[in-house]
Amino acid sequence: MTAYTATVTVRLKNGVLDPEAETTKRALERLGFEVDGLRSADRFEVDLDAESADVAATRADEMAQRLLANPTIHDYDVSVAER
Amino acid sequence: MTAYTATVTVRLKNGVLDPEAETTKRALERLGFEVDGLRSADRFEVDLDAESADVAATRADEMAQRLLANPTIHDYDVSVAER
C-alpha cells in the first residue's frame, strides 16, 4: 500500500448561477481591480492508502460521485499524487 | 495585453480547526471509505488581462491579500495560465 493524496476539484457546471462568485467579482471591482470573470470551486485534498495511483483515483472518483459533488449542478476532476 | 486566468487556492493554515473537512471526512467514512485525512480549500479562477504572466500573478496576489484570503487563518497560492 502506498500513501496518496487525491485532489478533487468540484465546480459549478456552465450555466449554473454562482452568486458567491458574482459577489466576489463585484467586491474586487470595488477595490479597483479589473476582472473579466470569476469562478469559484471547492477543492478537497483526501489522504488515502491504495495499491496504486489508479486505484486511489478510482476511489476518489467514487467519493466525488457519492458525496463531494452533486451531478445535477457540478462537474469535478480528480488528480492523485504520492504523499 | 494578454488574457490570463489566475487560479488562487486558499486553504486554512495548519492548526486552524476545519469543521467542514472533519464533517466531510466522517461522512465518507460512514459510506465505507477509508480516509487518513481530508482538507478543504477554496479555489478562485480569475480572468484578467495583463501585460505579462508576472503582472497577472502580482495582481492576483494583491486580490488574495486584500479580499480572497484572511492572513490570520489562511495560506494561499497563485498560479497563472494564458486563457
Descriptive key words:
alpha+beta; Mth169, Chain: A; 83 residues; three-stranded antiparallel beta sheet; homodimer
Tell me briefly what this model is.
The structure is a homodimer of 83-residue chains. Chain A is of the alpha+beta class and 83 residues long. Chain A has a single domain, classed as Phosphoribosylformylglycinamidine synthase subunit PurS (Mth169, Chain: A, 2-Layer Sandwich).
Listing every helix as H and every strand as E from the N terminus to the C terminus, the arrangement of chain A reads EHEHE
State the major sheet of chain A: 3 strands, antiparallel
Integer average pLDDT of chain A: 97
Largest interface: A-B, 31 and 31 residues
Care to count the β-strands of chain A? 3
Overall shape of chain A: it is elongated
CATH homologous superfamily annotation of chain A: Phosphoribosylformylglycinamidine synthase subunit PurS
Low-confidence stretches of chain A are none
Might you state the CATH topology name of chain A?
Mth169, Chain: A
Radius of gyration of chain A: 16 Å
Number of domains of chain A: 1
Named CATH architecture of chain A: 2-Layer Sandwich
Assembly state (oligomeric): homodimer
- The helical percent of chain A reads 25-40%
- Briefly note the structural class of the backbone of chain A: alpha+beta
> How many individual helices of chain A?
2
Strand content of chain A: 35-45%
Adjacency order of strands in the biggest sheet of chain A: 2-1-3
Give the C-level CATH assignment of chain A. Answer: Alpha Beta
Distance between the termini of chain A: 12 Å
